[in-house]
Specification:
Blueprint: H1 9-41, H2 48-69
Amino acid sequence: MTIPFLPPLSALGAIQRVLLVTLLTPAVLLALAAAVPALIVLPFLPGGTDRAIALLTAHTAYLRALLTGSRTLPPNTARRPRGS
């Protein structure tokens, strides 16, 4: 069943992804800007290289989970209802 004033379900996933990226880009850029001084200083401190790598790994994992979770299903792929 389609509702006339809503776009098709296949377009809703794409719209969700665009909105998600648009809304979260400033937050991610702010977090990265805040991390730049740490990434400049940490390698010169004892154990700092490991902490810098952990910081970059955390940012990468966060973005990967966010973008992977917002992917739409390929066309003609229906989700099965729970319990079936």
